[in-house]
Design goal:
Order of helices and strands: HHEEEEEEEE
Shape: flat
Radius of gyration: 21 Å
Number of strands: 8
Number of helices: 2
Structural class: alpha+beta
Strand order of the largest sheet: 3-8-5
Strand content: 35-45%
Distance between the termini: 63 Å
Length: 111
């Protein structure tokens, strides 16, 4: 009886994994939305100053991608499935893998 219950549990779990999930917003837009919400609520009170978060992606060939003046790098993506990167001088994405064909910097500006 226990093995039949266990098999049924595994079967139902696998069926749940096969159900397609559709999201209306991308991860980037959700992240930007949450950051904007947090900026408007400081110390639990709505901010009297309205601030705008503006973000863009900059793609470059090679291991470095630089953000435009006045923007800071908030994240990086690297080619060849490299997941090792760092941010230098707050505005440059640097991919750390030995072979990289492209680098993308996510650049944001708070105004």
């Amino acid at each position: 009886m226990k093995s039949a219950t266990f098999c049924l549990f595994i079967f139902i779990s696998l069926l749940l994994l096969m159900v397609p999930v559709h999201t209306r917003e991308s991860a980037n837009s959700l992240l930007e939305k949450k950051i904007k919400e947090l900026l408007n609520y400081q110390d639990g009170c709505p901010s009297a100053v309205t601030q705008t978060l503006s973000c863009t992606s900059v793609k470059a060939m090679g291991t470095l991608a630089s953000c435009p003046a006045g923007m800071v790098a908030t994240g990086c993506s690297c080619g060849f499935a490299c997941g090792s990167w760092n941010i230098q001088n707050e505005n440059v994405c640097h991919c750390l893998c030995p072979i990289i064909d492209w680098t993308v910097a996510r650049c944001c500006h708070l105004a």
